[in-house]
Write a structure and sequence with these properties.
The complex is a heterodimer of chains A (364) and B (358).
Chain A lengths: L2 E10 L2 E11 L4 E5 L6 H9 L6 E6 L2 E5 L4 E2 L8 E3 L11 H11 L5 H11 L15 H14 L5 E4 L7 H18 L3 E5 L2 H7 L2 E6 L2 E6 L1 H6 L4 H6 L4 E3 L1 E4 L2 E4 L4 E2 L13 E5 L5 E3 L9 E13 L4 E7 L2 E7 L8 E7 L3 E5 L13
Parallel strand pairs in A: 3-9, 3-10, 7-8, 8-9
Antiparallel strand pairs in A: 1-2, 1-4, 4-5, 5-6, 10-11, 12-16, 13-14, 14-15, 16-22, 17-21, 18-19, 18-21, 19-20
Helix pairs in contact in A: 2-3, 2-4, 3-4
Chain B lengths: L1 H18 L2 H7 L7 H10 L5 H35 L13 H29 L15 H8 L1 H35 L4 H9 L6 H14 L8 H26 L2 H9 L4 H30 L15 H10 L3 H25 L7
Helix pairs in contact in B: 1-4, 3-4, 4-9, 5-14, 6-14, 7-8, 7-10, 7-12, 7-13, 10-12, 11-12, 13-14
Classes of the chains: A alpha+beta (364), B mainly alpha (358).
Chain lengths: 364, 358
């Protein structure tokens, strides 16, 4: 059940913005399409909603085909039984909050419209503002109305198109939790589009990372953070340090010759150029008095700068020719030498691909 | 930047002047001053009629105004693209100081000469028995108004005018919505052709349009000649750009996602237009109805060649009595038309407060 997308292609004339991608969303699952702007994530979502007409491939919702250009099948959006939340809220300004939420119920001919409206408004905590006009609401409240409207008719699928990007930071955190809670309560499959890795990591059961109309990697937030397939994914999700390493004999070395022990599971000789990924929180940063820890990598560098953040200090440390980000609670003066220790398993070799192949035909 | 605007408004004035029919026919013809627009009318209306020549003049006139309109639109676009690159600036009034009163005086004088004075004269001529050497010696009478009260023909013209303006404007607004939805939202292949087709009549003088319609429907097997439908058709064709410009400008302002939200909520395209787009565009639609109503009410150039006894409208009645040298009746009808127009305007503004915004 849920969504099944097979070889979806979308072209505008000669320009192809989605290159035959396939993925699914299981029943009750929260899946996020994550990627930079122009990667095709929003177009994919709009194809599923029926707001764009795909060029090729098929889309099925709950096992029922809604789009298949090969057989000229295209179910219009209003027959797809879904709820969608837009980036611009798209709350109708000429209707009250209650009338906005009632809209999907009345067009579908539901009997108990008032009951449905109350249910949906209670879920988003907007019951008291039912008679207000959207112009009298804050951005966060408007987005809650949009959310209530999307769930009011109990759709079989929820779609979110960057719903938080117009909200300020604090409101974004709260609304994020709210959306997660509601989706789990309703147990309805959801597809969520964002370019914000924090949203993706915190809300999703599964994340699909896209770039230039292709899927780069998909997996749980933990998988993507801990085992990114390439430099692009590692860089896009979380903070990442990259060490330029080269194979010398049987070991890997920095450009200054220091040997680095890497995660053996990632040490594959597949002919592709590699770079070592090291997350900042995996590094232990000390002054030169620190004792060597058995079985750990130990590199020497110089502190370039430090930024006091409260819980810890964020340092930039120069190691050979690379600049690494690392956290420490001790005070280290800029220019002073420092010791970086880290576990070999935390130092993963990834494909050195910052931008996957098709970057040149950049999608709008 | 200003030169764009000046050139563009100069061209617009040129077109409007070339198209002008009502004023030259009233003032020019008796003094044997004819312009192209009135020449067409004279050639068609009075023997020896020369429809071929009239058609040739019509095409020439349409070509001149058409080219001018094309140039004007290009200039206006050029000017606009310059303006939109800048930041929206605040408008600072220029203090006129001592000049203020003289400027006010000039404006007041213009209004008096162009509006108040003719109005008073109309009222005067509609009420006198006959012209006297000293205007203040005149004897007054209500006979023109009594005549109108008793004249079935005039009453039909009034009813026709209200039907054509009220109903025709509605047709125009609906057609305008349809055209704008095509050119702004749906944008099917070749939508630019539709856009251009809608704008085309803007460059065609009303008298030329009337001539074309006269020929088309006098000879085509469509039973439209001599019906009010033909008059409405002529008016809607002529003034459709008013409607499409107003509703199109509003549709452009409304984010597409408002309608898309309606579709994903289960509303069909038509339902989305009806329940979301229409209510949100209501003020613009009202003002486009208002514009069309006013334009239809006073239009004469497109009607003068295609009206028949049963489809006469008020503007034509005024012209006919003037032509028969019955100035008193013409003035009384004009006064009546003015009162009717002001009444309708107030009524429309009361019913549709949104129309006032533009």
């Amino acid at each position: 059940m849920g969504i099944a997308v097979r070889n979806l292609v979308k072209s505008y004339g000669a320009l192809t913005v989605i290159h035959a991608i396939s993925f699914g969303v299981a029943d009750g699952e929260f899946v996020t399409l994550l990627g930079p702007s122009g990667c095709g994530k929003t177009t994919t979502l709009r194809c599923i909603a029926g707001l764009e007409t795909p060029t090729g491939g098929s889309i099925a919702i709950n096992g029922e085909r809604v789009s298949d250009p090969a057989t000229n099948l295209f179910v219009p959006p209003h027959e797809r039984d879904l709820g969608m939340v837009f980036q611009s809220y798209a709350v109708w300004p000429h209707l009250t909050v209650a009338e906005n939420v009632a809209f999907p119920l009345t067009v579908k001919g539901e009997r108990d419209v008032a009951g449905g409206v109350n249910w949906a408004l209670d879920i988003v905590g907007m019951g008291k503002l039912a008679k207000r006009r959207p112009s009298e609401l804050s951005g966060g409240q408007q987005q809650r109305v949009a959310l209530a409207r999307a769930i009011a008719a109990r759709p079989r699928l929820l779609l979110f198109d960057e719903p938080l990007s117009n909200l300020d930071a604090r409101l974004r955190d709260r609304t994020r939790l709210e959306i997660s809670r509601i989706q789990r309560e309703l147990k309805v499959p959801a597809l969520y589009v964002t370019h914000d890795q924090t949203e993706a990591l915190s809300m999703s059961d599964r994340i699909i990372v896209m770039e230039t109309g292709r899927i780069v990697q998909e997996g749980t937030p933990r998988d993507l953070y801990q085992q990114p397939v390439n430099r692009f994914v590692a860089d896009f999700i979380g903070n990442a340090n990259f060490l330029h390493v080269q194979r010398v004999g049987r070991e890997w070395q920095l450009e200054n010759g220091s040997p680095v022990e890497v995660d053996p599971a990632t040490d594959r000789d597949d002919g592709r150029s590699k770079i070592a990924l090291l997350r900042p929180e995996a590094i232990r940063l000390d002054d030169t008095s620190a004792q060597a820890i058995a079985g750990q990598n130990r590199l020497t560098g110089h502190v370039v700068s430090g930024m006091y953040l409260g819980p810890h200090v964020e340092y930039i440390v120069e190691v050979g020719t690379d600049h690494l980000r690392a956290y420490s609670r001790s005070a280290l003066a800029p220019g002073s030498p420092a010791i970086l220790s880290f576990d070999a398993r935390d130092c993963r070799l990834v494909d050195d691909v910052a931008q996957p192949e098709a970057r040149l035909q950049h999608a709008g | 930047m200003l030169s764009y605007a000046l050139a563009s408004s100069a061209l617009l004035c040129l077109v409007l002047t070339l198209e002008q029919f009502g004023i030259p026919v009233l003032i020019g013809v008796p003094g044997h001053v004819t312009v192209l627009a009135t020449q067409i009318y004279l050639l068609c209306r009075f023997p020896p009629t020369a429809y071929g020549l009239a058609a040739a003049i019509g095409l020439t006139l349409a070509a001149i105004t058409g080219i001018a309109i094309l140039l004007q639109r290009r200039l206006a676009r050029g000017g606009r693209s310059v303006v939109t690159t800048g930041k929206a600036g605040k408008i600072t009034p220029i203090p006129l100081g001592a000049w203020r009163w003289s400027v006010n005086l000039v404006c007041g004088f213009y209004i008096a000469v162009s509006l108040v004075l003719p109005g008073l004269i109309l009222l005067y001529t509609s009420l006198i028995k006959f012209f006297t050497a000293n205007p203040f010696d005149a004897a007054f009478t209500f006979r023109n108004y009594i005549y109108i009260w008793n004249s079935e023909e005039t009453q039909r013209a009034i009813v026709n005018t209200v039907i054509v303006s009220g109903g025709g404007a509605l047709v125009g607004v609906v057609l305008g919505i349809a055209c704008s939805y095509f050119t702004v939202r749906l944008r099917p292949t070749g939508y630019r052709v539709l856009d251009a087709l809608v704008m085309l009549p803007f460059g065609v003088p009303g008298i030329v349009l009337g001539l074309g319609l006269l020929w088309a429907y006098a000879y085509l097997p469509l039973p439209l000649y001599g019906t009010l439908t033909l008059i409405v058709l002529a008016y809607v064709t002529r003034f459709l750009p008013y409607a499409t410009e107003t509703s199109g400008a509003r549709f452009v302002q409304l984010d597409r996602s408002l309608e898309e939200a309606a579709w994903t909520a289960g509303a069909s395209r038509i339902s989305g237009v009806w329940r979301i787009l229409m209510p949100l565009s209501l003020p613009s639609l009202q003002s486009s109805y208002f514009l069309l109503f006013m334009a239809f009410f006073r239009e004469i150039s497109a009607t003068i060649l295609i009206f028949t006894a049963s489809t006469s409208v008020l503007s034509v009645s005024i012209w006919s009595s003037f032509e028969q040298a019955n100035w008193g009746l013409a003035s009384a009808l004009s006064i009546l038309a003015m009162i009717l127009m002001v009444a309708m305007m107030s009524l429309l503004l009361w019913v549709m407060p949104g129309a006032r915004r533009r």
